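User: Hey, quick favor. My workstation is busy. Could you predict this chain's structure for me?
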Amino acid sequence: MSNPAAGLTQKNLDYYDKEASTYALDPFKLHLARLISSTIITSPSLPSTTFTESSTRILDFTCGVGLLSQCLTSHAKEIEQGLEATDMRGVCADLLSLGKGEKPEPGVEKGSFDVVVCSMSYHHFHSISHATQVLTSYLKPSGYLIVADIARTPDTVRVFQRNEDIREVVSHVGGLEVEEVRRIMREAGLGGVVVDERLRFKIRVRGGGCKHTHGHGDGHSHGDGHKHGHKHEEKEKKDEGDGKDRCPEVPGDKGGQPMSIFIAIGQKQ
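Assistant: No problem, here it is.
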């Protein structure tokens, strides 16, 4: 019997292998990575001591070409993609499929990270419940899982359904239901779960692909708790502020369907 999760993983590998050489050249993807990192760093749901250059270990799961990791380097001691901030280290391993007792390589042990972040990948996973349980297991006690992804709406479903390439590599057409993400994070043993839906964009289908046009920070939070890769030789300096978008608008048509990106945060109990 075929394994649907394994088949989906291979389709994603094939698709993003083809995208890798030009992925980081897309101004929207650069813009989005900076905006997501700024929103995470300045989130009022995270203590100010969460990200420190002297001690924080971050696992950036499904890091792609490392755009988000580069934005976080000045806020961490070490970032594992899959790292020391001055010399990030990429790990090629499918953490969701490792057998009991298997490790991707030394330095990527369960219970060893202060923060695990997964950006714009959850909608690709066959089981977001399994993914959340596995990623939570890599956190230290009181560590934080941070998930950024597309909030599912009728508009995003229509956009996904019109794009054959996207339909082939995602499990959750149109993104994810925010309340389902919140429930799954709680079931994985995370407390103080907060979901911030402040990032909003326009997205338009053109030909075989999607065109993201522009975005801004404009949101609100829903919480149930308390507040409180390969090597990259250069750190990327980023603006710090109130989490609002300080980047120029991405060139393009102002039309298209609205898309909201949520940031979900939960603390390991």
